[in-house]
Amino acid sequence: MKQTLILILSIILYLNLNAQKAEIYGKVIDKDSKESLIGVNIIVDNSGGISTDNDGNYKLQLDAGKHTILFRYIGYSEKRKTITIGKNERLRIDVNLTEENTLLEGVVVSAGRFEQKLGDVTVSMEIMKPDFIESINAPSMDVALNKVPGLNIADGQASIRGGSGYSYGAGSRVLLLVDNLPMLSPDAGDIKWNFIPLENVAQVEIIKGASSALFGSSALNGVINIRTAFPGSKPETKISMYNGIYLKPKREEIKWWGNNLPFYTGTSFSHSQKAGNLDIISGGNLYHDAGYRTDNHEDRFRYNLFLRYHDKKIKGLIYGLNTNIMYQDKTDFFLWQNAQEGAYKQVESAVTPSNGLRLSIDPSILYLKENGTKHSLNSRFFKVINNVDGENMNSASDLYFVEYQYNKSFKSELNLTMGTSFSYAETVAQLFGNHTSNNYSVFAQADKKFFSLLSVSLGVRWENYVLDSISKASMPLFRTGINYQFADYSYLRASFGQGYRFPTIAEKFTYTNLSGLTIIPSPNLKSETGWSSEIGIKQGLKISNWTGYIDIAAFWTEYQNMMEFTFGVYDTATYEPIYDMMQYAGQLIGFQSRNVGQARISGIDINITGQGKIGQIPVRLLAGYTYTYPIDMNTDSIYLATKTQPNNILKYRFFHSVKADVELSYHKFILGISYVMNSHIENIDAFFESGIVFPGLKEYREEHNKGYNLFDLRLSYKLNDYNRLSLLLKNATNAEFMVRPGDIRPPRNIALQLSMKF
């Protein structure tokens, strides 16, 4: 009898609770195109919610009463609705979202690992859209990113606000993420820029400043997160084809090709569609560059397939599988013959043809619950194979990475993120031997908003790294930040974050000689650590039909145990530096990655982003100025003597950098102008001016090391709503400049591009 009574009471209670429930449902579409929007986040009372399905529909149960419903989607202005709903009531709410009308309303995820408006983030961040990448005809992601103020990429190595110099392709203080997962090679820790699927980019987010508390090693100087796209409600196919030629350089004597102009050509394509509950994107790229220098060509083919399946039975459960594969055949240019007629000709002994394979496979599971909880399990297998002809420099590396993340949004405008990650890497190489490493971490971050005006962020991470079961490192890291909206579209922020970077296998174990340039192992190399802080203001602009923002930030960064390739004399047995002049004979002479001590980089970063009209002409603007003061705190006289100027300025840094891009539209024509200015590089390695490796470099720098100004022009004509023909002139003034010793960048070149959409 007792059990029967309990059962009856339970049924009555269940029916009563169900009777209190109400339901909202509807569809979310693009206001202009009327297309359904997939994956729109619908948040109830700053807690809980769901995403729209493949047809843009949603359905959500909630308690009877008053509620605030927020509709948020990347690239669109969020919409907020307040409703009152009664018991058992079903209320249909259809929503039209418009593309963001102020750039501060753009949604980002990298700053805190959850979706938030750009204006609310506590760190400096820049956003790049895919239409900009296409408009400048970037053959690889580094070319596009070099247009971002405060970010410079020299010979493949990224530096944010002067945080990095030049380190021969080994190690990166900027962490590259593709869909929130790290994409650095397991052996050299470098970025494979041409492997990034440009044809399938939804948004690029750049964090300026140390972010290791959220993302781990190599985020010491900042983070670049490439977010890939998924299909809309209608199938879409895009094709882009271009052909270009290198024109005569400013100095006639360095032209080696006679009347046969070197050329480059490329084709990229992508197709996206929905098939029931399955999202599909397929894309690829073909590229050939004959090179404007001798023995310096590149051929590559890349193909990618991205799949995402929405479970039919379990609402909010999504399975993903992304794959990307690339084969390349290339010869890099490293050493010129001389600074005169041989500036575009490579030393024969330095020619190293190579081919290789890049492969990534990313399985994932995402579960979104209506109570505001999100579980995500993401993994990546990343394989890198390098085959170098005629040299003992072959290598193969495998990286296995898995990360679990838990995210919870509360009604009190608190967002909690926690997670753990594990990676294992294995390298087999003739160049630096066979090695294994593993990395384990746990992290947590809380983001709280007070009175809808003040945002406070606090994060912590613990990391443990083991190399070859011998070299071990373990450390905690912290970050914090605040953002206060003191007026409409006015945000004041301050942040502090710690960073670190474990030495790469290439930095610790590489032993090679390239045409007189010797790289020496550094088995006792220690991890570098540091921190960065900033205070900034972001002011939204809305004047007549102009919208945008200006961002001003003062920053301060410090490094400890900073790693830097340093020329010197080293013991043949221990590889330790030798300072006694009497013991130089018979020892190793060359470059070694060393912990050179402490460094400090401070400065100011000013950026302006906007869009509007001049009369009836739409205009888009991206511009910025960065001043950095890069100080080397190491006062050792022997170390200072390794630089061209024995002072405290860090090597391979600019003091001043200006970047701007303006695009104007008139009827069917689009005109774009890009400008880049970098001031002179005061310090490089003194050894390079000795003439042993780079003949004539000292005299060349005395004449040309005055900084440089670059202009790129582009003119597009819309054949119709879906096809566009573009003419692109790069380095329009035919400036001669270099970003690292012996690497004179391309002369004036011109390309014709056809972009089609079906």
Tell me about the biggest sheet? 22 strands, antiparallel, barrel
CATH homologous superfamily of the largest domain - what is it?
A: TonB-dependent receptor, beta-barrel domain
Low-confidence stretches: 5-9, 11-19
Count of discrete domains: 2
* Percentage of residues in helical conformation: under 10%
In terms of DSSP E residues, the strand content is: over 45%
The CATH topology of the largest domain is given as Maltoporin, Chain A
**Number of helical regions:** 7
Question: How is this structure best described in words?
Answer:
By secondary structure, the chain is mainly beta. It folds into 2 domains: 22-99, Immunoglobulin-like; 107-757, Maltoporin, Chain A. It has 7 helices and 43 strands. The chain has a 22-stranded antiparallel barrel. The longest helix has 19 residues, at 2-20. The chain starts with a helix and ends with a strand.
Q: What is the secondary structure topology, with strand pairs?
A:
Layout: H1 2-20, E1 21-30, E2 41-44, E3 47-51, E4 57-63, E5 65-72, E6 79-85, E7 90-92, E8 95-97, E9 107-108, E10 116-117, E11 124-128, H2 130-135, H3 141-145, E12 151-154, E13 157-160, E14 174-178, E15 181-182, E16 201-208, H4 212-215, E17 222-228, E18 236-246, E19 263-275, E20 278-289, E21 298-310, E22 317-331, E23 353-368, E24 373-388, E25 395-409, E26 414-429, E27 435-450, E28 454-467, E29 471-487, E30 490-501, H5 505-509, E31 512-514, E32 517-520, E33 528-543, E34 546-560, E35 563-570, E36 588-595, E37 599-614, E38 617-632, H6 637-640, E39 656-666, E40 669-678, H7 697-704, E41 708-718, E42 723-730, E43 749-757
